[in-house]
What does this fold into?
Amino acid sequence: MKRILLLALFPILMLSCRDAKKASEEKKVVLVAQPEIHKELYGFWVGDFYTAEQLEYDGDMQDAFEKLNINIKKITKDTVIAQSVVSGNSRPLLGKLSADGGRITFVLDEPGSNKYDGKFDITLVGDTLIGKWNAHNKELKWPEKEFKLLKKKFEYNASLMLPTEANYVDWSDHKMIQRVDTAADGKIDTLDGNAFYRSASNQIFKLNASTHLLKEEDVKNLRKLDLQIIKNTIFARHGYAFKKQTFRNFFDPVKWYVPVKNNVDDDLTPIENKNIKLLDRFTKYAEDNYDAFGR
Amino acid sequence: MFFAYFFMLMVQLTLRYIPLSSDVSFLQIKQTEVSSIKAYLPIFYVHVYTAIFVLLAGFTQFNAEILARYPKIHRRLGYLYVVFVLLLASPSGIFIGWFANGGLMAKTSFIILGILWFWFTSKATLLILKRKITAHKKFMYRSFALAASAITLRLWKVILVYLFHPAPMDVYQIIAWLGWIPNLLIAEWLIKRKII
It folds into this structure.
């Protein structure tokens, strides 16, 4: 009972932090007494979150599909309490479940206090939640998105690694390399010719910063991107919801990755904390020195 | 002008190590050595702090005007250069070279560099004490060619990283050799052509 009360209070606490709709939500406390139904649907529902256009475009350099995680926390006759995590953005959801002749549908609302808040319309088809999301704000670049979510357990597992079959190239950011051309008349032109995209080395599949205490020599020959990926793989194992596009592109397509929360600092193990310190030091060194005069 | 520019860059790099600290700049990736080898940090700092004096003393020594007009200045700076190189810069260079990044390939290069530097400098000193000016000059050209690797090594790094984006220790193994061998070849070429 205590737990139920806490669960019921949870979205209210979240909302009160944002100072929005506070008054209207307080009524929900009254609903605590209602019996819970469809407990089998509780948990994380995870899958791609995409626009119709994205589905059609098939290219190498586009951003990965966003990963949507809807965490269903409590269902009663009148209320569904859940949480959405997408693009590093975690939002409380409130809504209703309707069971119409065995067909289960949900309507879940984000509070509306965030620019990207919207409404989820979801149908349970077999073992999949299929649905659409519509932004409250129709001016957004993508006001409508679709998704297919499967139920997934989230468990921290230190030995998980990035899958080797993917290419880890940072398409979201690049540096222009000037190309120098000598024209026929001897004039020298500099062209903003080749874009350089950072790509990771295969060390990112070998070094596990959650299970092994890394030594300086292990990471000395790594570029900044490798160091960042090895560090962020720790966070991904803990279910950190990445805000940076670069890391969402790397981790959102990974099967085992479930974006669960915005802060995993308290979940880190002593080995991980030590490794993060080491990796941060090397990242800073790489930033300051890699392409500069010096060593 | 060219020298002055790179000398200023070297001064900037040195300033990063003031105040004395055990984990700034390059030392950020040398914490294994710093914590496990007691002598590493003091000897590292000897090497860092002597560099700009050695370079400054060296820059002026090949200027014909100073040589002819102010032999005293040449002699004094010469003493400074020789004492710093033989007692401080080259022995400390050999020591930290033993623990260099980049594995055996880089270590070998830095140790050979340090030994040659010591040898050329001491030879040049002995020769001038015997008043053998031409031979002294030749060996000082060689000595300073190696001293200038402090600059050329770092310059090659910028160039290689810009062009090829290699992994940091791959580039380190290359510049360990590229930093001083071309310099020495140029010195030898100047000596052969009797430009000196």
Observations:
- Helices of chain A lie at 2-18, 22-25, 52-56, 216-219, 224-237, 245-251, 270-289.
- Chain A has two domains: 2-152, 169-289.
- Confidence is low (pLDDT under 50) at residues 12-23 of chain A.
